[in-house]
């Protein structure tokens, strides 16, 4: 593999990372490079000059832990800037803004001693209840792909590796390490993989992280179709593939099928398995060399002899990046309602500030992405300290308890606070326990205590402005009770000052929703089968996700994909289309400078293959002065007209009359024009066996129609009769072993008790409940071997004593083997 080479632009120049002659390393040394040395460090080979490198969570801010650390955001980490989460930044529809954020992240990574940032998160938002949606950009691959590309380019401009994740089809947190995402090839490629393809082809990330789940029966971290056939061969990715923490199943299968590094410290057992597999021919030496070279090259690409692993941010960085975070938050906020031009608030307006989140802000989600914010601020603090002389705060009231507990006295206090106010500004939203890695949301509603508060405030007759804090859509049945609704999202550590600028008109809202907000959860296409509680999660809705469903099935939504209001008003005109691009004019015909997002949608020729009614294929954020016009040009590219043809297993374009549309959101088409296109194949009518799919009525789809979508009957796993090493601990509740049932019951009750006590989910316990036993061999620095896992699995299968005995025997055998391996690796 001495010819293996990565060439990537870094800071305007090209750095070449030539591997040393990997073949000169022993097989064990090569195998050692394929697993971590600690929770956050890779393993190096000192004699070969291959340095270890530091990995850190960081989709929206560095979580640089010291010491042993953890992977769930529980332990203490170094102060860093908490930027808006991906789900919020996506609402800016501005890849250049994402790039600016990436540059700041990369700069902070170097200051904190980090070589590789684990982000961006870019999975498609299949369902609004996914607990990790706040970490993901969009329901659409164009938005997700281009926003991720911007962040990647920014991070890597600083000589730090970016790591888009989770590849692929990570759509639920329940059973996330033991879930099997079953999806048809067309839907997988056109919807769930296209975002990754865009980011990889455009931004050339140096690394990529696989997801915990299986994809069509094979774990993502060892999935040849994903990692070799598509990622490496089709897309030309030549970087490092890293497992999610504890997400490696078989170290041998991972190396054989394109995954380079399993994290965290899997210990010597994985190394021995790889060495043995090479000796028996189960793993080719070429594959081992390729994986070892990828690790060595990442180490070379990111090596900086001046990097201080104990470093901290400077005061100047904290100040500068807080301003960057504020600007991003301002650009990402979405004005969802503004009756009677309630906003912006005029100078001197007397306001009553209501809501616990105005005093104790929530600006990020829970889990591995949780940042120890270098600076914090609250709306109450800013207003009371006079940082906005334009508004007169006559009173503040808490209004509700954060955990949702009912307290009428708080509502009464808030109503009294409104007595002398002209406008009520209420900070409402979801609390910390509602959106977190490790668990999915149970429903879309705001806490009833907040809705009751809003009802009481409406009765005062005062105009109400809501600042809404949430990382994902919420039900808004209460929307008629407010005059203005400003969706700030999870906007990072500067969310308060950003909100203030938006309220007063210093900043004109320009965000547009990157996901559909349904009227009710039951309207969601996958609501009847999400989340899947057993192993097999069948993506029965096919391509009809988000706006693709609502528009194709003619289901009304509360706020359509791409929606966003402004203090300005924009009109569209003069659409011109040819085979290369669409051009049109956007005019700000108001007296206020502002920005909007022009969105390009296409509809395929009638009578062709199954497709949604329209699909986003391009967009552009436009800044316009008052009464200014600008010609906008959106170029067609390789993604604009293609579909995956299952007969030829290739991308094809149908000939015929396409419709090119320009919209201010997915539902509101401002301009449209036909385009006669000569494609690679003639339009072919969709298979009538698809039945309800032809009208997007996915909730009525039959098993035969599902089989037509997949091209074969979909087989699901039956009830577990024998527990294996890939069945989660939570499934032990159905074991015939009393000991196994006790373990599952104890953990479930302990988690519920801790959440009730702290108001936040117990992520460690949830991780264990969702964890299959095989992950124990990947998360314990070699203390537990695969042989010991086999013994553990005997317990839920009714052989407790054999399991315990085998575990003890395996412990001593593993300890002895580890001593021998350590000596061999150190050449003792």
From TrEMBL:
Domain Fibronectin type III-like: 596-666
UniProt xrefs under InterPro entries: Cellulose_deg_GH3, Fn3-like, GH, Glyco_hydro_3_AS, Glyco_hydro_3_C, Glyco_hydro_3_C_sf, Glyco_hydro_3_N, Glyco_hydro_3_N_sf
Highest taxon listed in the record's lineage: Bacteria
Molecular-function annotations in GO: beta-glucosidase activity
One of the GO BP terms on file: carbohydrate metabolic process
Signal peptide positions on this chain: none
Classification via PROSITE patterns: GLYCOSYL_HYDROL_F3
Its job: Catalyzes the hydrolysis of a non-reducing terminal alpha-L-arabinopyranosidic linkage in ginsenoside Rb2 (alpha-L-arabinopyranosyl-(1->6)-alpha-D-glucopyranosyl) to release alpha-D-glucopyranosyl (Rd). It is not able to hydrolyze alpha-L-arabinofuranosyl-(1->6)-alpha-D-glucopyranosyl (Rc).
Family classification: Belongs to the glycosyl hydrolase 3 family.
Subunit record text: Homotetramer.
Name of this protein: Exo-alpha-(1->6)-L-arabinopyranosidase
């Amino acid at each position: 593999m001495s010819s293996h080479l990565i060439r990537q632009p870094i800071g305007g120049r090209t750095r070449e990372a030539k591997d040393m002659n990997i073949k000169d390393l022993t097989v064990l040394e090569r195998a050692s490079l394929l697993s971590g040395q600690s929770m956050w460090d890779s393993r190096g080979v000192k004699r070969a000059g291959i340095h270890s490198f530091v990995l850190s969570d960081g989709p929206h801010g560095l979580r640089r832990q010291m010491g042993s650390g953890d992977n769930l955001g529980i332990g203490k980490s170094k102060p860093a800037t908490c930027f808006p989460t991906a789900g919020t930044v996506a609402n800016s529809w501005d890849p250049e803004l994402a790039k600016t954020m990436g540059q700041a992240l990369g700069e902070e990574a170097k200051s904190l001693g980090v070589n590789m940032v684990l982000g961006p998160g870019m999975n498609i938002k299949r369902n609004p209840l996914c607990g990790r949606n706040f970490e993901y950009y969009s329901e659409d691959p164009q938005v997700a792909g281009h926003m991720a590309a911007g962040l990647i380019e920014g991070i890597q401009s600083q000589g730090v590796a970016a790591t888009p994740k989770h590849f692929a089809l990570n759509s639920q947190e329940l059973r996330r390490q033991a879930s099997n995402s079953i999806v048809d090839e067309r839907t997988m490629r056109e919807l769930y993989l296209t975002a990754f393809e865009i980011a990889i082809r455009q931004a050339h990330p140096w690394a990529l992280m696989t997801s915990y789940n299986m994809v069509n029966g094979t774990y993502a971290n060892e999935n040849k179709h994903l990692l070799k056939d598509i990622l490496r061969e089709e897309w030309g990715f030549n970087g490092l593939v890293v497992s999610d923490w504890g997400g490696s199943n078989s170290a041998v299968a991972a190396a054989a099928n394109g995954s380079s590094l399993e994290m965290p410290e899997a210990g010597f057992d994985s190394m021995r398995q790889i060495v043995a597999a090479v000796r028996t021919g189960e793993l080719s030496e070429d594959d081992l060399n390729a994986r070892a070279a990828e690790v060595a090259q990442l180490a070379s690409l990111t090596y900086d002899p001046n990097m201080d692993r104990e470093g901290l941010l400077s005061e100047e960085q904290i100040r500068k990046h807080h301003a960057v975070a504020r600007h991003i938050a301002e650009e990402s906020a979405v004005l969802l309602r503004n009756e009677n031009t309630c906003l912006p608030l005029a100078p001197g307006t007397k306001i009553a500030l209501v809501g616990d989140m105005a005093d104790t802000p929530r600006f990020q989600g829970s889990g591995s992405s949780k940042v120890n914010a270098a600076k914090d601020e609250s709306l109450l603090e800013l207003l009371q300290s006079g940082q906005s002389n334009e508004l007169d705060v006559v009173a503040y009231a808490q209004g509700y308890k954060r955990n949702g507990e009912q307290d009428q006295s708080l509502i009464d206090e808030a109503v009294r606070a409104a007595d002398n106010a002209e406008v009520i500004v209420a900070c409402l939203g979801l609390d910390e326990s509602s959106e977190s890695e490790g668990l999915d949301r149970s429903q879309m509603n705001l806490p009833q205590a907040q809705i009751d508060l809003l009802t009481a405030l409406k009765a005062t007759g005062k105009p109400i402005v809501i600042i809404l804090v949430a990382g994902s859509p919420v039900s808004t049945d209460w929307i008629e009770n407010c005059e203005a609704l400003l969706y700030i999202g999870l906007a990072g550590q500067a969310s308060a000052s950003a909100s203030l600028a938006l309220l007063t008109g210093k900043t004109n809202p320009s965000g547009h929703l990157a996901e559909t907000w349904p009227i009710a959860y039951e309207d969601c296409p996958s609501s009847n089968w999400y989340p899947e509680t057993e192993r097999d999660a069948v993506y029965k809705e096919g391509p009809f996700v988000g706006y693709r469903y609502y528009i194709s099935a003619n289901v009304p939504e509360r706020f359509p994909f791409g929606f966003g209001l402004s203090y300005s008003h924009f009109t569209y005109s003069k659409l011109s289309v040819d085979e290369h691009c669409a051009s049109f004019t956007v005019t700000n015909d108001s007296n206020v400078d502002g920005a909007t997002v022009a969105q390009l949608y296409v509809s395929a020729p009638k009578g062709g293959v199954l497709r949604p009614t329209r699909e986003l294929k391009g967009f552009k954020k436009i800044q316009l002065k008052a009464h200014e016009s600008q010609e906008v040009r959106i170029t067609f590219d390789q993604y604009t007209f293609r579909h995956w043809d299952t007969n030829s297993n290739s991308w094809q374009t149908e000939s015929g009359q396409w419709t090119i549309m320009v919209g201010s959101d997915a539902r509101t088409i401002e301009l449209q024009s036909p385009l006669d296109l000569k494609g690679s194949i003639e339009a072919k009518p969709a298979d009538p066996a698809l039945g309800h799919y032809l009208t997007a009525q996915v909730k009525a789809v039959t098993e035969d129609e599902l089989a037509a979508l997949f091209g074969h009957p979909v087989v699901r796993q039956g009830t577990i009769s024998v527990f294996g090493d890939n069945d989660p601990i939570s499934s032990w509740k159905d074991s015939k072993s009393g000991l196994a049932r006790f373990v599952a019951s104890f953990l479930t009750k302990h988690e519920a008790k801790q959440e009730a006590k702290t108001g936040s989910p117990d992520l460690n316990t949830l991780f264990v409940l969702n964890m299959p036993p095989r992950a124990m061999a990947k998360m314990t620095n070699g203390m537990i071997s695969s042989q010991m896992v086999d013994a553990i699995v005997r317990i839920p299968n009714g052989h407790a004593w054999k399991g315990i005995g085998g575990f003890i025997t395996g412990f001593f055998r593993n300890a002895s083997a580890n001593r021998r391996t350590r000596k061999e690796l150190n050449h003792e």
